[in-house]
Amino acid sequence: MGSKQNIKLAVDAVVFGYKPQNSLSILLIKRKYEPYQNHWALPGGFVLDEESLEQAVQRELEEETGAKVNYLEQLYTFGVPGRDPRGRIVSTAYFGLVRPEAYEIIASTDAEDVNWFDINSLPDLAFDHSEIIELAKKRLQGKLKYEPIGFELLDEAFAFSDLENLYSTVLEKTIDRRNFRKKILSYELLIETKEKVANRPGRPASMYKFDKARYDLLKEKGMLFEI
User: Fold this and answer.
1) Phi then psi for 41, rounded to 5 degrees?
2) Coil, strand or helix: which one is 114?
3) What is the DSSP letter of 145?
4) pTM above the 0.70 mark?
């Protein structure tokens, strides 16, 4: 006996941004059309017949926000009946990491506006997007402890204090600075540059870069990154 289905497939994107000394932020769009017209929501939309999920989420991000995100990872599929008033719509969510200043965000297609919001001061959101963001934050916090994805949120050259602040902000807890520095440096994944931190109190501190090529090589050999 054949089954009867009337299901549509969509994608949503939780894009995290971070600026040194600031909180984690989320990229949101204001919806131009119903349902939830003029409500803030995650960028996203329906998957086209000829697209993969990854192609769809990248397209929706570029169309609605102008952002092209290098780091995107599949998060979870949300399919509770009634989650969307337009009908039976299943959405596969992704989360991404960017430096906000790297993009000029521009609202387009079905987005009335686009902006960054502090993750601790989000507006009322459309659909089940609050639930999606909460799950994405937990995934980010967990993954930050065993993979150095946090460097995607920092400038190419950064002060060690910026890295400390990033971990403290994302994990939402105070870290032991001495042990954290010792642990990070033990992996030998940071390249000290000739640059010094400017416009900050105290003795000038060194700037570092993340050695991704070395990390990829060590990962292939079975190195375990753990914070």
Assistant:
1) -155, 170
2) strand
3) T
4) yes
